[in-house]
Design brief:
about 200 residues, alpha/beta, five-stranded parallel sheet, four-stranded mixed sheet, elongated
Length: about 200
């Protein structure tokens, strides 16, 4: 059985795993596909507590966590209630930040690169991180190989911020295979994010 939990933040990936594990036939495994470091840690704890052998493999920007129960998995509580036992849910704000360029502001582009690097660092080290960060057009370079912000973006992701880059942009720029952090999104999902979140800031 395979569950796609990409672009989902905890506790949702854990809830999906808890709902699926009892449905496995004897000897069957569950694969949960994620692209979130917080979910990776929470699912690892879940495997230990539910006595499952765990195999973790990387598929590009995605992580596949394969659970093989050593005994039947059952629970008397709802998956959502039980997920609280395994999840460290980070403190995120409700804000969404969109980066349409790899620099900040107009005028001196070299200065703009310095500013955007500093801004991402500041976002990664403040008390509450954004709920989601979306990168498109020239901003796609910030999540790819060669970016000086990769480690700060990984820090943001580990603290619960969802990092997404426009797939159309990655393909147009020819850098999809260079993506270093987060997942890939599309214009439909970006439109949904804009319409459903009042706190959207474009850099």
């Amino acid at each position: 059985m395979r569950v796609d939990a990409r672009n989902l933040t905890c506790p949702k990936p854990v809830v999906l795993a808890l709902e699926s594990l009892p449905k496995l036939a004897e000897g069957e495994s569950l694969e949960v596909v994620i692209n979130d470091n917080v979910a990776k840690g929470n699912l690892t704890r879940l495997a230990e507590q539910k006595k499952c052998d765990l195999e973790v493999t990387e598929e590009g920007a995605d992580t596949v966590m394969k659970f093989t129960p050593r005994e039947a998995v059952s629970s008397k509580r709802s998956a959502l209630d039980e997920a609280a036992d395994f999840c460290e849910i980070p403190d995120t704000s409700s804000s969404v930040v969109m980066f349409g360029a790899d620099h900040m502001g107009e005028g001196n582009e070299e200065l703009g690169h310095v500013l955007v690097k500093g801004l991402i660092y500041a976002l990664a080290h403040q008390e509450r991180v954004p709920k989601k960060m979306i990168f498109f057009n020239g901003g796609a370079h910030l999540t790819c190989a060669g970016s000086e912000s990769i480690e700060d973006l990984k820090e943001l992701e580990s603290r619960g911020c969802v990092i997404l880059t426009c797939g159309t942009c990655l393909d147009y720029l020819g850098i999809r295979d260079q993506l270093q952090v987060g997942g890939v999104t599309n214009l439909y999902e970006i439109a949904q994010t804009i319409s459903s979140n009042p706190g959207v800031t474009r850099i």
